[in-house]
Amino acid sequence: MPTKPSKNLETFPNPHPGRDYIIEITCPEFTCLCPKTGQPDFATLTLEYVPDKLCVELKSLKLYVWSFRNEGAFHEDVVNRMLNELAAAVLPRFMRLTGEFNVRGGLYTTVTAEFRKNNWNPEPPAPIDDFPVQAEVLTGRDDSPPPDKTAAPETGGSSRFRMLRRARRPEPVAAAAKGAKQAAAPPPKPSRPEPVYVGIDLGSTGCRLVAINANREQVAHAEAPLPASLRNDEQVTQDPTRWWKAVCDGLSTLLGQIDPQAVRAIAVDGTSGTVLLADGKGHPLTPAIMYDDQRALDQAERIAAVADANSGAQGATSALAKLLWMQDKGLDKRAAHLLHQADWIAGKLLGIFGQSDYNNALKLGYDPAKLKWPDWLNELAINRALLPKVRVPGESMGKISAETAKAFGLHADTEIMAGTTDGVASFLACGAKRPGEGVTALGTTLVLKMLSNKPVFAPEYGVYSHRLGKFWLAGGASNTGGAVLLQYFKVEQMREMSTMLDVDTPTGLEYYPLPDVGERFPVNDPTMVAQLEPLPGNTVTFFQGMLEGIARIEAMGYQLLQQLGGPKLVAVWTTGGGAQNAAWERIRARTLGVPTRKAAAVAAYGTALLAAGVVTKTYQ
What we know:
By secondary structure, the protein is an alpha+beta fold.
């Protein structure tokens, strides 16, 4: 071990880089030489810093301080020089070095120098007692004898001993005037990094996460897969605990790319109409009944007999029909909450359950125009205690639970915002703002949304409208889409065949591709079967015929929305995996007859905008 002075400063990794905290180190025995007389100068050094990735190692700091003992230096120079060398070694977020020099010629000198990292913007200063401090005192070299605790206090003696007494920290009463001056410039209160907002998008086959900054720029993204739904005839389910695992995996990856303490808010979107029953602590009591589950045909008929004609709860795939089915089966006996996919994940983040948003609650019967649960629900003997408290998308639902914050290193003040559905999130991600602008999500299914000045409802066609501030998103969701393509082709096959398509020459095949029995929109027929005949002579033509069929269903959907009172389609943005297929884009543009463009962002980006409060401002 070295026992001589050294200018070599050693460091070690900051054990808590996600938190701003102050390390205070006091050295009451600093000495250097007066550059004019060669006489020793004594000072108390106080080093305060907010570490970033490194901390200074105390052994090396002792030897570094010792190295100035026989050097001549002006007070102003030595403090600034030491600060420069310490900051260069540690690269802190903030560092302050104060040198309180003992009397020289009847004068005391105090020199304070500061270093601040670019883009580190602390909150207004506050007393140091208000935040975490790690205090250290450097007293002597390793071979210095311990202080004599039994020694009597010094009351006189040479000027040398008087100088040492002056070097001690002043008592509070004796140093009132000097202390008042020092209190005017306390260390800056450590602040959180520049704000970041996280959007979580739960689809049927995966979880996607996006983080954006205050300028709406994406700063991180992550994905985690989900297992395919379990299908048993008309019943389609998933295990909700797999959603949470995917969210946890995705969050861990995302937060590895940013400072978790920067996250101000999180919002979640999920598939529309996917629900489960849970107890008071959020434990699932049923599998999640998925958006395309068709089991509740009888319950849908009961709803149709009493519900308002414009209700989004119409149809066998509605959340309300599924709730009735579960009640009829007695599955609600121990239940405390009926939760949508996004509601349950938000509840897991919050640690409390029973909240939703008016986009997800639409298919549960909530009236987004009047912002209340309708009276006709009473005629269905619905257990209203199961219904969630409905919030405006983007409204705060509360702060993240202490357990979740600790698990991911998030700040305790991170807010969980009311979310939305995956279809609305896809629309938000595109930035469409004018009535007549539409967004098509080409994912597992085909989801259409078009901005309208008024709501459009037509349950006989499976058409409903989501509220978006003062506007409405009219649209519907077809069961056609990527799922049916994957029943016939592998991804690699489709990628290869796309380069072989004759996109400017229609095949003439009038296909209506569906992955299973039943359609929701633009034809609402639970018994509808796919139309994929006649079969052509080659696989490439069959593939092109299916792409044309899906494009035709898309065009039918937008035409139906206009016929029902919506605006004329003027442009279409495309999201989802299908948006990457340039050949399909040309087929769709020809079929739709309006400009089409690929969205620059995914649904999770739209949900991140929701978390940041941008959506609320845009559509008011």
